[in-house]
């Protein structure tokens, strides 16, 4: 699968320093390269950065399945296609789980791993109501994004959440479409919420960065993280929830820069 990407600098993959190790970012559920543009630009002052649209998201192709092994396989294909041997991998939420699975399967391709506000466990909450509301939205009758926002507000009451989801609605009156593959994501939601059964561990250097007021990662998860990633360290971002990189971008950026600079090869 040929994944859509954005690079910083923009010609990174065409004119890449073979000795450099880029940071590759995997966004979370409903996220895309668009949501990470500002953050990636800031991070690129220290390292080359690549952001991917994962399958069924953004400008990447749609598929009938959406397992973490699928996402890991897609990432491996991207790296091989572009001749990238090793990366610093950073994933948020669903992207964090995909990053963990990739690191467990292909640790030789990972220089360092940063996981943002997610643990290798199953979660009980679900985003199915969001997907159902978007599927039920009659795009043929929508004249504007503002109208779509009004209709969705009947089910999705949080304004910030709606605006985030509406970033994936493109087009104009009579020609709107979702870049998200809504039906596959809804059908595969149990897989997205879970973590695959895997017996292996990875000795990559890993940072698990969480939001102080998020309920996704807590001390109760540290043991299972350490079982999978014995070299993991933990850090919390004050006054941040699950969307820590959007709520406290400077603090998250500083934490990542500090972690990545621990690389013995960093000059």
Task: Explain the overall architecture.
- The chain has about 270 residues and is an alpha/beta fold.
- The chain is built from eleven helices and nine strands.
- The strands form two sheets. A seven-stranded mixed sheet has the order 1-3-2-4-5-8-9, sandwiched between helices.
- Helix 2 crosses helix 3.
- The two termini are about 35 Å apart.
- The model has no long low-confidence stretch (mean pLDDT about 95).
List the helices and strands and how they pair.
Blueprint: E1 5-8, E2 23-26, H1 37-43, E3 49-52, H2 68-81, E4 87-92, H3 94-105, E5 110-116, H4 128-136, H5 145-152, H6 159-166, E6 169-170, E7 177-178, H7 182-187, H8 189-193, E8 205-211, H9 222-228, E9 232-237, H10 244-247, H11 249-260
Parallel strand pairs: 2-3, 2-4, 4-5, 5-8, 8-9
Antiparallel strand pairs: 1-3, 6-7
Main β-sheet: number of strands, strand sense, barrel status? Answer: 7 strands, mixed
General form = globular
Q: How do the strands line up in the largest sheet?
A: 1-3-2-4-5-8-9
Q: Which structural class do the helices and strands define?
A: alpha/beta
Estimate the mean pLDDT confidence.
94
Count of the separate structural domains: 2
The SSE string, one letter per element, is EEHEHEHEHHHEEHHEHEHH
Beta content comes to 15-25%
Q: What are the low-pLDDT stretches, counting only 5+ consecutive residues below 50?
A: none
Radius of gyration over C-alpha positions, nearest whole angstrom: 18 Å
State the helicity in percent bands.
Answer: 25-40%
Q: Could you name the CATH class of the largest domain? A: Alpha Beta
